[in-house]
């Protein structure tokens, strides 16, 4: 047991005192022992999702807290604007995959650490991959990615025939998020505590400007920029490609046109920085907040993996605009959560002869409960599978587009019909059950 | 203070690198940060975590003062030391590892203890913008705190032990111009319009507009129109109480009735916004207490040759407030439903007024500076512009000296000690821990076989401290026990939490933006909770 002996090295004294001495605030069932540190050092596997501002910090924090079998997954490459907080990256690393550079750096600095990088989207990894981890911790800036991984850990849950949750199938999810001087950290025990989907209303929708304002009555410099972005670019198509917020030439064009438009309306304040902010929807970020939130998450991972302390139950918010403020509360599970409740999702249909398929698609996109991106719908009609609509695959989109303008009745859908809805926000299709209010119209 | 918009949109490499933070504290905040010099005493894990979050955003320079050599224990919690460096000076290795983070930052180190420097190099600490101290003994802390208090250099003291820690800021006087409040109601002056504003507002008769014109009118014009009507029917008085404001809001709501007498239940957006603004924007905001305190401060009323430009501008501001009964107009409007022309016209009226007031204050401040015998360049117009724009966000913090807290026998914690669950008790325990280390030259629980006896000793030390302060409160015993079991354990993740918090406080102090902690923050990682106290 070479590793076991390593646990007795002086460098681990900090963790040993915490894990090997009884504490008045430890969980009552916790038995202090050297085996806990041994577990962290030799077998505990933790996955870090995202190698950005939070991810770099998480990787360092967990490596320093005795975790060695770390995996980190990120599909991005390093950009100059990352360097003010993503401290594992240097100027020479610009353009290289974040996950790989971060892993290499930490493996070199922290002796014995074996970080495995994954330079790919989270969707590229299978259930089997995610299943191997004891804890998963997220440092993401994207809500859809959070929802996807949340759907994944929930889908890994196993229930016995009596509906009792098999505890060994539970992979706790620790999630952090920051924006400027504000941040939050939360612990999700899938199937037990509130999941990402239960609390979807916590994530405010992106700021958007009404089209009529930006087209007819612009007042702010932002309105002028947004107009160029959504109307002028597609019309003029100056470079023959979609607008790319990372392309300086593109931004320069948008800046020029936005200044022209602003001048025309006597509006002041269009700057290049503002153009960048609006076009790329930039969220301000600073090293300190990322350090705090990532470290709160890492501390919770340590509590969960070592079982020494009761983890945060279950939501913490942080804000240091005015002094330093933290607050914790228990986010509640939603009884009819689309992901973790095991209840088919009812969609009430007022009049199936009037509701078109496109209305249903719209509802899945717009309703606060679903907030899907590009839902694809399939169902079973008369014993055969039928794709109602799918926008993500070109050929199928073409074939099914005609269904959008048909009513649910015309498509042969019945009251109580179950539809399988696939979307980028979830790894597994969600079952949606139609409930017709006027089922008597079915026979018409 | 804000830099002029560059003609060419090409951005410098630096502004691209710092883009995400420049959106928070601006180029002017960044400039202050880049001109600052920070000193760190002791490159503990907590110390290097603080420096990390200062170096990344581009602090000007740092100096590490540390007489220790790197130990194996250090490697276990400090990321900015290398395994191969055991036995080498900790200041040197930490400096090397940290400098790698940002080539724009200069860094050096002194392989000596703070104690040694305090007694041998007289003015060493005086040259820093701010000093951060971690892992210092009570004795050194008291000397350091007194010294820095006298030289007027802010001091941030931090400690991290097990799951616990604190951040304590010592600052004699700190002024904030830009507090960045989360939300602020617009500054409209509808009750006391100046002639140009009055002419514009009262030039519109809402009831005579056609439907299209009506939904293009900016909300302040609507609000002013119904405010005048309200005054006519209320003996010229403004609505002040809630019910009175409700009556005003109802008048606006009723305007939605169409001519045929049919109820229009949906008001246009601009009318809705006018109703919304009726809550907070009818009467001009009184000078906020935190600003009045500044205007009444001795530093403002008794200027001297050594008065800073801040206080000179405050003196000029004070005169304007006395003459006009209100702060200068902010000069910006939030977005509101209106057509482009009306909105831009109205905005220009506010902006013009703000600019006029800036000129008045600038002239007056320059005159005051001249009268004090100061040079013409003491005050710049752009500085005054910035100051006036944020005049409702001004804050002043007058801190206390940490040494007083350690030497005082009558530390007043009465209000805080009433709640037995209060985190103030961790302050007491950590003070006990520091006293213990001073007395026994070891951490409580440092040695495996001494945990039990150390609990008793630490309880004794804490009891003595409390009675010195005149308290007989019993401490929840498990809190003493918990600290003893930590021994010398410093948890990296807990130090990283405290380090991030501490670094941001340093940036606030340096940039004069955002309100810093006043004056101690205690973190409890067991429960993921925190609290701040003013000692
Ligand atoms: Zn849920």
Automatic annotation (TrEMBL), chain A:
One of its GO terms (molecular function) is NEDD8 activating enzyme activity. InterPro entries: E2-binding (IPR014929), ThiF/MoeB/HesA (IPR045886), ThiF_NAD_FAD-bd (IPR000594), Ub_act_enz_dom_a_sf (IPR023318), Uba3_N (IPR030468), Ubiquitin-activating_enz (IPR035985), UBQ-activ_enz_E1_Cys_AS (IPR033127). Its EC number is 6.2.1.64. It holds the Pfam family ThiF. The active site is at residue 212. It comes from the Eukaryota. Residues 349-437 form the E2 binding domain. GO terms for biological process: protein neddylation. The keyword Cytoplasm does not apply. Keywords: ATP-binding, Ligase, Nucleotide-binding, Ubl conjugation pathway. One of its GO terms (cellular component) is nucleus. It catalyses: ATP + [NEDD8 protein] + [E1 NEDD8-activating enzyme]-L-cysteine = AMP + diphosphate + [E1 NEDD8-activating enzyme]-S-[NEDD8 protein]-yl-L-cysteine. PROSITE patterns: UBIQUITIN_ACTIVAT_2. Catalytic subunit of the dimeric E1 enzyme, which activates NEDD8. This is NEDD8-activating enzyme E1 catalytic subunit.
From TrEMBL, chain B:
GO terms for cellular component: cytoplasm. Keywords: Ubl conjugation pathway. Pathway: Protein modification; protein neddylation. InterPro entries: APP-BP1, ThiF/MoeB/HesA, ThiF_NAD_FAD-bd, Ubiquitin-activating_enz. One of its GO terms (biological process) is protein neddylation. GO terms for molecular function: NEDD8 activating enzyme activity. Residues 18-529 form the THIF-type NAD/FAD binding fold domain. Pfam families: ThiF (PF00899). PANTHER family: NEDD8-ACTIVATING ENZYME E1 REGULATORY SUBUNIT, UBIQUITIN-ACTIVATING ENZYME E1. Belongs to the ubiquitin-activating E1 family. ULA1 subfamily. This is NEDD8-activating enzyme E1 regulatory subunit. It comes from Dendroctonus ponderosae (Mountain pine beetle).
């Amino acid at each position: 047991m070479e590793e076991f002996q390593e646990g007795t090295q002086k460098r681990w004294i900090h963790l040993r005192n915490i894990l090997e001495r009884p504490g008045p605030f430890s969980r009552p069932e916790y038995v202090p022992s050297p085996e806990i540190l041994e577990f962290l050092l030799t077998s505990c596997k933790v996955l870090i999702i995202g190698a950005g501002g939070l991810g770099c910090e998480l990787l360092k924090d967990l490596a320093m807290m005795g975790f060695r079998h770390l995996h980190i997954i990120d599909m991005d490459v390093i950009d100059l604007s990352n360097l003010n907080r993503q401290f594992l990256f240097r100027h020479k690393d610009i353009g290289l995959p974040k996950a790989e550079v971060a892993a290499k750096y930490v493996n070199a600095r922290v002796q014995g650490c074996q970080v495995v990088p994954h330079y790919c989207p989270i969707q590229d990894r299978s259930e089997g991959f995610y299943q191997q981890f004891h804890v998963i911790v997220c440092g993401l800036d994207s809500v859809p990615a959070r929802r996807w991984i949340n759907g994944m850990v929930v889908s890994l849950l196993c229930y016995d025939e009596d509906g009792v949750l098999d505890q060994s199938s539970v992979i706790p999810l620790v999630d952090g998020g920051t924006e400027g001087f504000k941040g939050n950290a939360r612990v999700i025990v899938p199937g037990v505590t509130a999941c990402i989907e239960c609390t979807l209303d916590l994530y405010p929708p992106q700021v958007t400007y009404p089209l009529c304002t930006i087209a007819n009555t612009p007042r702010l410099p932002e309105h002028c920029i947004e107009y160029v972005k959504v109307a002028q670019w597609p019309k003029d198509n100056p470079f023959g490609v979609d607008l790319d917020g990372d392309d300086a030439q593109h931004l320069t064009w948008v800046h020029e046109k936005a200044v022209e438009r602003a001048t025309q309306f006597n509006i002041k304040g269009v700057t290049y920085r503002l153009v960048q902010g609006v076009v790329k929807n930039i969220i301000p970020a600073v090293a300190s907040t990322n350090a705090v939130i990532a470290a709160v998450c890492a501390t919770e991972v340590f509590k969960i993996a070592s079982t020494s302390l009761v983890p945060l139950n279950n939501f913490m918010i942080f804000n240091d605009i005015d002094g330093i403020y933290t607050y914790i509360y228990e986010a509640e599970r939603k009884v009819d959560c689309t992901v973790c409740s095991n209840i088919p999702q009812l969609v009430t249909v007022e009049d199936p002869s009037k509701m078109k398929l496109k209305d249903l698609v719209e509802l899945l996109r717009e309703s606060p409960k679903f907030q899907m991106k590009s839902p694809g719908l399939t169902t079973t009609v008369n014993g055969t599978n039928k794709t109602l609509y799918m926008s993500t695959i070109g050929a199928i989109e073409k074939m099914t587009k005609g269904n959008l303008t048909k009513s649910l009745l015309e498509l042969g859908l019945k009251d109580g019909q179950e539809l399988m809805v696939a979307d980028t926000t979830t790894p597994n299709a969600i079952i949606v059950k139609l409930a017709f209010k006027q089922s008597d119209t079915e026979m018409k | 203070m804000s830099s002029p918009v560059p003609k060419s949109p090409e951005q410098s490499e630096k502004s691209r690198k710092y883009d995400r933070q420049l959106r928070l504290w601006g180029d002017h905040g960044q400039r202050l940060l880049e001109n600052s010099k920070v000193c760190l005493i002791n490159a503990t894990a907590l110390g290097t975590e603080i420096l990390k979050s200062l170096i990344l955003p581009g602090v000007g320079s740092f100096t590490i003062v540390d007489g220790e050599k790197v130990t194996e224990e250090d490697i276990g919690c400090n990321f900015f030391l290398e395994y191969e460096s055991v036995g080498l000076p900790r200041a040197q290795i930490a400096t090397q590892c940290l400098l790698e983070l940002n080539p724009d930052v200069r860094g050096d180190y002194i392989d000596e203890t703070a104690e040694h420097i305090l007694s041998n190099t007289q003015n060493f600490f005086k040259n820093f913008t701010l000093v951060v101290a971690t892992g210092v003994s009570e004795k050194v802390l008291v000397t350091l705190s007194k010294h820095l208090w006298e030289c007027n250099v802010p001091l941030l003291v931090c400690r991290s032990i097990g799951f616990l820690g604190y951040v304590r800021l010592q600052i004699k006087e700190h002024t904030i111009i830009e507090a960045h409040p989360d939300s602020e109601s617009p500054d409209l002056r509808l009750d006391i319009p100046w002639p140009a504003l009055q002419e514009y507002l009262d030039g519109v008769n809402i009831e005579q507009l056609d439907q299209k014109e009506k939904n293009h009118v900016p909300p302040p014009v609507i609000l002013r129109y119904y405010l005048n009507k309200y005054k006519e029917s209320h003996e010229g008085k403004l609505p002040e109480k809630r019910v009175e404001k409700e009556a005003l809001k109802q008048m606006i709501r009723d305007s939605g009735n169409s001519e045929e007498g049919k109820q229009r239940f949906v008001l246009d957006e601009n009318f809705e916004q006018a109703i919304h603004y009726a809550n907070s924007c009818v009467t001009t905001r009184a000078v906020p207490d935190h600003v009045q305190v500044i205007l009444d401060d001795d530093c403002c009323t008794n200027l001297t040759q050594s008065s800073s430009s801040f206080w000179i501008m405050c003196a000029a501001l004070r005169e304007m407030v006395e003459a006009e009964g209100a702060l200068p107009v902010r000069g910006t409007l939030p977005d509101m439903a209106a057509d482009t022309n009306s909105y831009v016209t109205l905005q220009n009226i506010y902006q013009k007024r703000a600019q006029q007031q800036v000129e008045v204050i600038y002239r007056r401040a320059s005159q005051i500076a001249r009268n004090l015998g100061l040079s013409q360049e003491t005050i710049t117009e752009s500085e005054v512009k910035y100051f006036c724009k944020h005049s409702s966000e001004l804050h002043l913090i007058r801190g206390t000296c940490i040494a007083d807290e350690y030497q005082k026998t009558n530390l007043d914690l009465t209000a805080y000690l009433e709640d037995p669950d209060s985190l103030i008790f961790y302050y007491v325990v950590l003070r006990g821990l520091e006293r213990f280390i001073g007395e026994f030259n070891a951490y409580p629980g440092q040695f495996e076989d001494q945990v039990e006896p150390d609990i008793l000793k630490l309880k004794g030390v804490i009891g003595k401290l409390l009675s010195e302060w005149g308290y007989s409160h019993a401490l929840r015993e498990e809190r003493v026990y918990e600290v003893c079991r930590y021994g010398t354990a410093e948890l990296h993740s807990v130090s990283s939490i405290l380090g991030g918090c501490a670094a941001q406080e340093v940036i606030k102090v340096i940039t004069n933006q955002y309100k810093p902690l006043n004056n101690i923050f205690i973190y409890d990682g067991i429960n993921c909770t925190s609290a701040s106290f003013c000692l």
